Amino acid sequence: MAAVTSKVSLKLMIDTESRRVVYAEAGKDFVDFLFYIVALPVGTFIPLLNQEMVGSLGNIYDSFANLSTTYLRPNVNKDSLLSPKAYYCGATGLPLHVPNVESSRKVYRCCRNVTLDRNETCSCGATMNQESKYTVLPSANNPYSSEGDFVKGKVIYMVMDDLAVKPLSTVSIIALLNKFNVKEIGDLEEKVVDLGRDEVVKLLKASLLTKTILTDVFLSVLKEEVNCQQEVEGNF
Hints:
- It is built from seven helices and ten strands.
- By secondary structure, it is α+β, with helices and mostly antiparallel strands.
- It has two domains: 8-27 and 156-234, no CATH class; 55-133, no CATH class.
- The model is unreliable at 1-5, 134-147 and 225-233 (pLDDT under 50).
């Protein structure tokens, strides 16, 4: 399981009256991470939700987990579905990672089959652990380049509360202010927050359960920080 190699910062623009995040200003790192989520297998998310799963995907997951190996084909590895590993190419691509996401430039083979997982079972029944060289060339058909990039740097992006993304612009800001009945940008409170591994997991969970992701993930944390600070000050 890959570890978070660094933290990424977001500048939240908060409507203090309604206590919600109107939007966040983000750089390339965070936007690349959001777009990379699209490439993750569904099985990556299900274990993170635990009992919070909405819908029936959890039932499918549990059914496979509880199914006796008597009913599975001999070359089927349960972990390949229950604990899938999504790979991105490039050891220094994304600064934010999620559980079971690994960086890899290697592929493994057996017979004529190729895989990214060295523990996968080949159709012949053998383990696919013969390492081969793997080179990724950026192209129009490749979902990400060898560095895991999606969007251009040196651009400030606007991330909405529901994680919709667009380049930051005056027109977009004015439209949001009107939508939330905020008179001017100066009425919004600015707050910079850092995302590490804990925040990544919370964000993934919230993205599957609500459309107010930034508000639900970060304002509750900020409220806890304020309460703790008030308790500390009250003891002196």
